[in-house]
Amino acid sequence: MADLKEDKIDFRKLEKELENAMKADAKYWRENDAKMRAVEQRVESYEQFRDIVAASHLQPLEKKDKISESKLQQPWNTLATSDDKKQELRLTRDTEERLSAGNLPHNSLEFTRDWRRCQDRYKLLMTIGGTRLEKVMKSDIGMGILGEILVSLNASFVPEDATAVTDILECLPNCGRFSLALDFLSRQEKQSAKELVEKLEDSCESNEDEDVKSLREELQKLGAIYQLNSKDEC
């Protein structure tokens, strides 16, 4: 005869398992929706993509929601903030001294490190040049780096650097994952690329040097490569 105690079902345990399974399923679909939104928004970096997914469980505040004043009593750690700034300044100074001494990055990771710490990014690009930049980022362009390069070149461009800047724009498409980086350009970054090419074209128009004039055909090719005439442009 069967033991009724052994056949007894633990409904509390089943209910708990069902609840956990439903939470796991809800989390999966919530994060999946967040990933799809991030792709549709064409976020500028993997960090932004990760943050959107990580914050998928948060809900926006409504008018009836109130933030307790007791939660705002904790002061900021001003000492830690000051130390962080000092550390950042020291790293920036050390990086610029090393670059000035000719110790340029050898790979994508080193370039990204120096790029984040360097204050004069335009000078860094002019120092490295297109040919070396292509070798440095042969494996891949760091997430968000392409757009930042285009913005920096456009913001600090001077006509005297037309040939060097064009060389950089020509070499970047040969770097790893260029197409992916291009797809993730923001509207502002695409606008910077368009303005930069227009500035290069203007420098050709105003310069009688034959070498500079020969850049016109190359600039037309660059316009196609960087999709400056696509429907997505600003």
From TrEMBL:
It is found in: Cell projection, Cilium, Flagellum; Cytoplasm. Residues 9-77 form the Dynein attachment factor N-terminal domain. InterPro entries: CC103, Dynein_attach_N, RPAP3-like_C. Keywords: Cell projection, Cilium, Cilium biogenesis/degradation, Cytoplasm, Flagellum. Residues 105-190 form the RNA-polymerase II-associated protein 3-like C-terminal domain. The keyword Cytoplasm applies. GO terms for biological process: determination of left/right symmetry; epithelial cilium movement involved in extracellular fluid movement; inner dynein arm assembly. GO terms for cellular component: extracellular region; motile cilium; outer dynein arm. The keyword Cytoplasm applies. Coiled coil: none annotated. PANTHER family: COILED-COIL DOMAIN-CONTAINING PROTEIN 103 (PTHR28572:SF1). Homodimer. Belongs to the DNAAF19/PR46b family. Dynein-attachment factor required for cilia motility. This is Putative coiled-coil domain-containing protein.
